[in-house]
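Structure record:
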Amino acid sequence: MNETLAPLADAPSQPEQRPIAVVLNGAAGALLSRADALEHVTDSFARAGLAPEFVPLDAGTLPQRMTLARRMDPCAVVVAGGDGTIACAAQALAGTETPLGILPYGTMNFLAKDLGIPVDAPDAAARIVAEGRVREIDVGEVNGRVFLCASMLGLPARIGRFREKERARTKGLRLWTRVCIATLRFMRRTLPGQFVIEADDGAHLVGASAITVSVNPVDEPGRRALGRSCLADGELVVYVVDRLKVVDAARLAASYLRGTWRSTPILHEFRAKTLTLRTGRPMLRVMNDGENTLLKPPLTYRIRRKALRVFAPPPPA
């Protein structure tokens, strides 16, 4: 469901007016690592007719600064960063009336692209906040931790952890070269794990090299690659890949381009409102929206329908 708010830029300027709180992730993307990040974001908002209040970068960890933003009793919270930063904000804002604005300065920016928010165009993203149009989107949770795009286990989480460690030491083409080499090495060495997935239609015993739990389904080819046009259908979709050696990855990519990926023998799909993932391992590495964490199984997933309010352009007709 879409709602329309009074444009924030037209709100009366009064001492008691509630602020627009802005949280920057200084570690996200190339732009926000520069010393002029604060000025850059300030200028974008000024051109949109907004005067935000920034939570200082030295005021604690990202979750702590999100908490400080909430304590400001803002009319909106805006975050500048990638999908992990946005998920951190959603952890604080889901289930509240406070809308979330997104300045997509991350590496992948999947949610921003799904919402139609321009990437690499901060002025346009700031204008979307000023226009005040709000969409309600679904929120996924695993053991109480919020994610908005996907929760991944197995090989993707291992690759993601390597990328985060390398990103602290190198950038650009060299970083992605090292990630590609490591991915090939992980594919050769990673053995499928054994899992029990308890979904709405019963229990499934699976051997998997990769498991992805998506908040609503991934689109068919023809739209944006691996994008989601439906963000409020109230459905978790589990994609299980039996094995993921180099040749399997190539075949899966080719079947995706042909539009036959859902019938690929190594891929299995389950849909549910809630699900539980069990395994004999004491801990599991999980990557939620690009952020790695260790969780103790069983992993309990649920979807909170239309729990987060976000500023977004009108959906295409």
